[in-house]
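yo

u said u wanted the structure for the complex thing, so here. seqs first:
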Amino acid sequence: MTVFFKTIGFSIGLALVFTLVTQLLPQVEGEAPVETKVDLASLTMDDFVAMGEDLFMNKGTCTLCHKPPPIGRAPDIQSMDMVSTSSERLADERYQGESKDAADYILESMIDPSKFVVAGWGKKGSNDTVSPMPAVDKAPIQLSAMEMDAIIAYLQAKDGNEVTISLPSPEAAAEVVAAAPAAGGVAPAPAATAEEALGKYACSACHAMDSEDPLVGPGLATVGARLSETEIRQSIVDPAAVITEGFPPAMPADFAEKMTVRELEMLVQHLAEKK
Amino acid sequence: MRSNRQQSIRRNGFSNGLGWLLSLLAVLLVFGVTPVFADMGMGGAEQRIAPIGRVHIEGQDFVPVADSVASGAEEPEQIAAPRTSRKDYPNIGVSSRAVVWILAQLHLFFGALVLAVPLFVLVIELVGVMTGDERYDSMAHEFMKISLTGFSITAIFGGSLALALFLLYPDFMGYMMHVFGAQWLVYAGLFFLESFFLYTYYYGWNAMRYGNLKWVHLSLGLLLNGAGMTIMVISNSWATFMMAPSGVNEVGVVVGNIWEVMKGPLWNPINLHRFIANIGFGGAVVGAYAAYKFLSTKDMEKRAHYDWMGYTSNFIAILAFLPLPFAGYWLMAEIYAYSQQMGITAMGGILAWLFIVQAVLIGTILLAGNYYLWAGMSRTEGSKRYKPFIGFIAFVLVVCFLTWVTPHTLILSASEIAQLGGSHHHILGPLGIMPAKNIAVNLMLIVTFLSFQLYRRSDKVATVSWAPIGNALMVAIYVVAIVNIIFLGVYFGYFSNTVYKVGSSVAQVSSTLVVIIAGIVIDSLMFKNAKTLPSHWGRIPDRAQYALFALPIAFTWLMGLMGYVRSSVKTHWHVYTVMKDNSPDNFIPTIGYAGNMITIVTVLFLLFVLFMFWVASLSGTKQAKPETVTEGGVA
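structre next:
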């Protein structure tokens, strides 16, 4: 019996030593990103730049890689003047994008990072033609257009450059508010405008709104010319009824349950006018 | 004459048996591989992947799959991953994650144990057949006996886990059911097979002990392991799908067949890592059983038996542990290749602190393993020659251990920063980053192998003429490897950029592997017909047995810790990038909370293992017949 208690005591004691080590370390929780409500009426450019800095440090997860050497895995953006750096990169013969100025270049490097890969930082074996950076507008980061603008404003402002980004429009701000997850199981508020409804139901996750480029679903820039109001309504309420040629029936079938009648009609009107 | 005949019978038995094994293996391969190829050939991956927007395989033509849709061919229903909100997660009053955490971890602990034990039992049984030493056979049988209840306990926790998941995460489980489809039934079916092989293997042990029947028995063991391994890789595919989904599109619609869903980028690295870790874990747990039995008896014969059993278990645990960091390297490299963001979340982000705890655990395992080997040298009379090395090995282990646990970034107050002269200590700061830790871990592995090598040599004297050259060669390999590991770590770690730093770690690992492989090859040749010195099983200090308790506790805790990081790198996603976790527990808990949870599951595991051992000991216990009862009591 003595052996039993000795071995049990030793084993539990050792497990507690390991537990103690974990208690001595810094206790940090990794919160899931929380969308913040933007009060457009009082939003100043300083607030917008501060919002960009916060996004850069947190939700955007930029500082996971963009850190000073030797621990960084990407150029140390915070110690660089990104406006002058952008001009150098736009002039570089390896640059493959279509941007004309710093703001466009920074946006392009966030949504299509392989357009220009800084020498030495490319994906292994790609000879610096493919960037290991994820597109920040896609999962898992999923920054909205307004959030990316805020980051551009921050990167311009931090070195004293002129901020060329405009403050967000009411539609864009509404999109962020609408995209916020419902806390505590409360149903989200009905959208007030068609743009808000587009954001609320994340239509642009699968459909390009301003072009005919196919993503997961077809582009909707001229959907009003192709479909009548009745057909658009049917496509939303019963997407499997008619499937556009060349696309899988991947559209969620539960919009009829989720949308209010007013939201549906606003969307139908809005899309029917896209000709 | 009789002896020749016996040998001839044994050889015939062996060749027949080997034929049996090879035939079975061939059948397994044919039946196992054919459906995979058939599956892969069903129209080709590009045809299934192509319909998503403009995606197509680079270098190949766009596949006009739209025709089949337009022609009215019936398409299967395509369901995207559900978008859940807080109300979709039932609230049972306690943390759902904590419930699933405990059940999943206990299921995994026992699953690992019962997958590993039959694996090394089969090898030990085979060694018994090859050497003709029945002690191996008896030990293998005893290992099976003590782990038998573990199969039921694994199933109980597995069933409880499944029920908890369906209750607490219904949408997520519904989606997983949809993605993996009929694979779940295959998984369930494999349990029937495994149970059949398990019971025939265990209960048929003595009925199939000699001659050709022994090979039938070994074949049953092989099939038991085949079923177990298949169960493991299938369940691994669920975990790796959640970390790095494949065979689905951006919104989670299944676009590939089951093989494409299973074969994600992390599947094989996890398979290999768990396979090796399970063996080490299983060895450590049965080693604790042997240590307990050793301490509980004064009978010298039994002590000798359990000492030998403990030594064998420690040998299995440490041998499996040595290549484990390399499998870990591969896994992390694949994680980085899949998503640099995920890799950095694990290694350089919020989870980075737990690698300090990992260092403490691995340091404990290596120190305990080495200490047991040093203490075990007292069994042999030839070990005096190697005693001076122990101090050197201990010194290297401790210095490397301290280097490994040196943190890089400290959370400090302003006055502490002023006192320290910066956010990093000017001397110890450089020891906090990976190059220093890579040097440390490789040197720890090398000196652990040195301990093992010296132990193996301690009861032998080489008789080959080239022994001095062999020894000189071995010393040279050690020296070159150690110098190479330190040089690569210092030069590429501190004087070049990150890309080269990561690349140099591969060369460091290769140096360690060269030492291990060269050591095994040189020693097996050099000590082939060596003179054997007396060895006394059972002659080992009692305190050495506590090293055999430290091993399973550290292994169990380490598995719990790695489970925490593996699951947490998904951050707030059930299925990374495809299905968000909107439950109340969608945050990464603190390391302290994780530590508490891991200790809870470790202690629970310990209690259930004791129950398992107790049940095993019941089978060998027979109550004495009560004497005649008289009116006044026992006569």
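Residues 374 and 387 of chain B are 8 Å apart (CA to CA). The radius of gyration of chain B is 27 Å.
cya
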